[in-house]
Automatic annotation (TrEMBL):
ABC transporter domain location: 23-256
Name of protein: ABC transporter ATP-binding protein
Entry's transmembrane regions: none
PROSITE patterns, per the entry: ABC_TRANSPORTER_1 (PS00211), ABC_TRANSPORTER_2 (PS50893)
UniProt xrefs under PANTHER family: ABC TRANSPORTER ATP-BINDING PROTEIN
Subcellular location: Cell membrane
Topological type in the membrane: Peripheral membrane protein
Keywords: Antibiotic resistance, ATP-binding, Nucleotide-binding, Transport
Amino acid sequence: MAMVDEDTRAEAPSGALGGAAAIEVSGLRMRYGDHDVLCGVDLRARRGEVVVVLGPNGAGKTTTVEILEGFRARSAGEVAVLGADPATGDERWRARLGVVMQSWRDHGRWRVDELLAHVARFYAPYSEPGRVRPRPVDELLETVGLTDCARRRINTLSGGQRRRLDVAIGIVGRPEVLFLDEPTAGFDPEARRDFHDLVHGLADEDTTVLLTTHDLDEAEKLADRILILAGGRVVAQGTADQLAAQVPADAEVKWTRGGQRFVHSTPDATAFLRGLLADSGDEVAGIEVRRASLEDAYMTLVHRHETGDARAAASAFAEEVR
Ligand SMILES: Nc1ncnc2c1ncn2[C@@H]1O[C@H](COP(=O)(O)OP(=O)(O)OP(=O)(O)O)[C@@H](O)[C@H]1O
């Protein structure tokens, strides 16, 4: 588990970063060989905030998360997690973090409860007032719905059960910052809903959560703020509603008249409905209005990137939030 020398002291980077935010990233760059994956990412997360990172395959989400976790060295930029540079964070700093990586396939012959008890021991010296570490294993098993699997060997778990165990490992130390890289891949609907409740509960405990997903409904349910990464840049961020408002998308109006269903796309649903009701208000029933969604915004913003306009999308976004 130790990724850095125990004696290496965590130091906050100098410059514009530091302060009360749990995560602060400025001008983050990552280059693999001659491939620039991150070209200047800025990101900030407050304590207790749930930030969801969206982006197409290969956008650099995992790379960003692994840099913040201290598992990957960055090419350039300033990064502070809980006030420390992840590249030099010590064990005390690491004990304040929780990590759920995209895949973690080890300890197959261990039993579920043994592994959790083993990992839990790492956190025991790092309790703080109001934050007792680690969480009791029984409580943890119950929280992630693995009580019935406690004595099972890990290599006999299903994909979804293994993922639940990954989440348990991520939260065993009652983290102040929790990184979750596609945590719900393989979850059935019930596990997914339980996981969403879990994240809401963690946020209530003032845990900062940074989560990547390809599930836009999940992003909308969980995020205080959504961030879209494309072309190595943050091309947009905000709540799902704020993002939807950024893209010009028609609303879809549906209604029934004389037993027949009608659908109409319009940029101004209110004006259209006024007209519809004025013309045939008595006969119209079952009105539904679907406004631009997070999915519309995501598709538009990512499409701009894929058509080579990521830099323009990022500067348009910077202009809008100024
Ligand atoms: N160790 C590495 N060496 C070289 N290239 C890498 C390395 N790790 C990642 N990459 C490349 O960096 C880019 C970003 O990868 P990353 O895994 O961060 O994307 P992602 O947004 O998490 O994608 P996904 O949604 O598919 O999980 C990809 O083009 C990937 O091939």
